[in-house]
Each structure stands twice: as C-alpha cells, then as structure tokens.
Design brief:
The chain has 168 residues and is α+β, with helices and mostly antiparallel strands. The chain has 4 helices and 10 strands, in the order E-E-E-E-E-H-E-H-H-E-E-E-H-E. It is globular, with a radius of gyration of 15 Å.
Length: 168
C-alpha cells in the first residue's frame, strides 16, 4: 500500500455537497491506544475565524463524542467504496460494546498523535476549535426537531481547524 503524502489544501477539489453526504467519512478521536471512530455524513468544509475548517455533527449519545470532548484533535477519513461495509459497522455499532476496529477490519494509525484508519485514502487532521450544542429551541424551522430528533438525541456541532491533509 502506498504511504500517505501531504496534500496541499489549495489543490483539494471536493464537491462539498457529496463528499460527506454520499461518500461518508469516519471521524476518529482519542489517541493511539484509547480511541473510537464513527461514521459521519453531516458536515461542511469552509473557512471561519481566518482558518480553513470542517464542521461535523455528533449526537449526544455517541461514544466517539466522549473522545472528541476530552481531546484537542480529531481526524476525518475517507475510504474507497471497498470499505462500505466498514463504514456501515462504524455507523451502526457502539465502541462501548464492541471493538469496531476489529469488526470493521480496520487498522489504527496515527499522525501528529491523531488516530485514523490506515486504510483511508484521504485524511483530514483537525484541531478542535469549538463545540457548539444545538438545542431544539434554537431551531427556527420547527419541522427539523420533528423529523430528525424524535428520540430527543441532539447533535453537537464541532468546528475543527484543518491542520494537515494527507492522501495516497
């Protein structure tokens, strides 16, 4: 397998409406030995506070949220279609109950101390800049709560500064 190489941010060409929503990604947080990963499909790429950034949305109940809350960094990893089953495992199982790395057939690796699946073909390493709760009373479109939050499990928006992008 080819090693990761730095990828200049100004050369990154992604469709922001498809990269996360259709291809999905894995967000990983923690360290080399204690971490968790989960599938994400809601997020955005852009600029805020003079920095290139990503936003991701994690429900309050997710085990990975504990690692993001405790730590300073997270990774956003994109895998080929060959790993669709791994993405399904990481999105449907809890790291509280199972070793998702093993069950998904993925291998933990780190760069700058930030964990990620070694099988990724595109890796975005991020420093957490903000964790923004999304209380239901903040929704101006009241249909959002009814459609997406019947179980009451709200999201937190995490804004991460893009530190480095690596690609194969």
């Amino acid at each position: 397998m080819h090693k990761f190489q730095p990828y200049p941010l100004d050369l990154l060409e992604v469709n922001p409406f498809l990269k996360l929503s259709k291809e999905w990604a894995l967000v990983t947080a923690g360290d080399k030995t204690k971490n968790n990963l989960m599938t994400v499909s809601w997020g955005a790429f852009g600029e805020i506070w003079g920095k290139h950034a990503v936003t991701i949305y994690i429900r309050e109940s997710r085990f990975t949220k504990e690692f993001i809350d405790k730590g300073e960094f997270f990774s956003l990893s994109f895998l080929s279609e060959d790993y669709k089953n791994a993405l399904n495992v990481c999105g449907s199982k809890s790291g509280r109950d199972t070793d998702k790395w093993k069950e998904a057939g993925l291998t933990v690796n780190t760069h700058l101390g930030i964990p990620f699946p070694d099988e990724a073909n595109l890796l975005i390493l991020c420093k957490k800049m903000a964790a923004v709760p999304m209380p239901f009373d903040s929704f101006t479109d009241k249909s959002i709560e009814k459609k997406w939050y019947k179980d009451g499990d709200a999201h937190v928006m995490y804004i991460g500064e893009i530190l480095e992008i690596l690609a194969r």
